[in-house]
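User: quick one, sequence for these C-alpha cells?
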C-alpha cells in the first residue's frame, strides 16, 4: 500500500472517530441532564420491593451519577460506532455486500436493548432475592451501599446484554464464510456447555433460576443457527445463479 493510501485511510479513520466522539459528548450531556431522573426511576421500580441506597463516602452519589451518564452515552453511541465502522469499510464492499451489512446495525442495537431489558427485569431480581434470602438466613443486617448495588447490577446486565449479540455474530461469521451450518451443528454440544456455564455464572445457584437464564440463551443460539442456515442457503443459491449466468 502506498504512503498516500495510508494517509487517506488514517484521515478517514480520524474523521469517523471525531464523529463518534462528538456524538458521545452530545449524548453524555443528555445523560448528565437525565441521570437524576433515571436513577430515581430505577429506585422506584418494584422489582424486589423497596431497597434503601446508602452512601458510605461523600463521593458515592457523584460517582453513580457520572456512571449513569456515561452508560447512557455509551448505550446510544453503539449504533453510531457500528454505522461509522460500516461506512469506513463500505468502499471495499460490493453493492450487495454493502446493502446486506447495513441491517446488522439496528438488529445489533435492538438485541443489546433486549438483553439489557431481560437481564434487568428477569435475571437481576432473581439474583437479588436469592442474595437477600441468604443474608437473612445468617442473621445479617441488610444495609446496601449504592456503589455495590450498581456494581452488582452491571455485573449481571452487561454480560447478558453482550450474550444477546450472539445471533448477529453468527450471522456475520456465516456471511463472510467463516461459519457454515455443518460447523454450527457439529459445535452445538460445545455451545450448549458454554451457554449452560454462562447461565450458571449469572444466575442464583438453584435449578429454577438456572433454567430461567440458560433456556433463553439456548433458544437464542438455536434461532441464530436457524437464521444462519437460511442465510447460508440463500448465499449458495446466489452463487449458483451467478455461475449459471457466467
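Assistant:
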Amino acid at each position: 500500500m502506498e504512503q498516500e493510501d495510508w494517509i487517506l485511510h488514517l484521515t478517514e479513520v480520524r474523521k469517523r472517530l471525531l464523529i463518534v466522539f462528538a456524538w458521545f459528548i452530545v449524548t453524555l450531556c443528555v445523560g448528565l441532564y437525565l441521570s437524576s431522573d433515571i436513577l430515581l426511576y430505577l429506585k422506584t421500580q418494584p422489582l424486589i420491593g423497596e431497597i434503601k441506597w446508602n452512601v458510605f463516602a461523600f463521593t458515592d452519589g457523584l460517582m453513580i451519577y457520572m456512571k449513569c451518564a456515561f452508560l447512557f452515552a455509551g448505550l446510544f453511541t453503539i449504533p453510531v460506532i457500528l454505522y461509522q465502522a460500516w461506512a469506513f469499510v463500505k468502499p471495499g464492499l460490493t453493492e450487495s455486500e454493502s446493502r446486506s451489512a447495513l441491517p446488522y446495525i439496528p438488529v445489533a442495537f435492538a438485541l443489546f436493548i433486549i438483553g439489557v431489558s431481560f437481564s434487568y427485569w428477569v435475571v437481576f431480581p432473581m439474583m437479588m432475592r436469592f442474595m437477600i434470602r441468604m443474608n437473612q438466613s445468617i442473621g445479617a443486617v441488610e444495609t446496601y451501599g449504592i456503589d455495590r448495588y450498581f456494581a452488582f447490577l452491571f455485573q449481571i446486565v452487561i454480560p447478558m446484554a453482550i450474550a444477546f449479540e450472539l445471533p448477529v455474530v453468527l450471522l456475520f461469521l456465516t456471511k463472510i464464510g467463516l461459519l457454515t451450518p455443518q460447523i454450527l451443528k457439529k459445535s452445538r454440544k460445545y455451545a450448549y456447555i458454554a451457554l449452560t456455564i454462562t447461565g450458571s455464572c449469572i444466575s442464583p445457584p438453584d435449578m429454577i433460576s438456572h433454567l430461567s437464564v440458560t433456556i433463553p440463551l439456548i433458544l437464542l443460539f438455536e434461532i441464530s443457527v436457524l437464521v444462519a442456515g437460511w442465510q447460508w442457503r440463500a448465499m449458495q443459491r446466489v452463487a449458483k445463479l451467478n455461475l449459471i449466468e457466467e
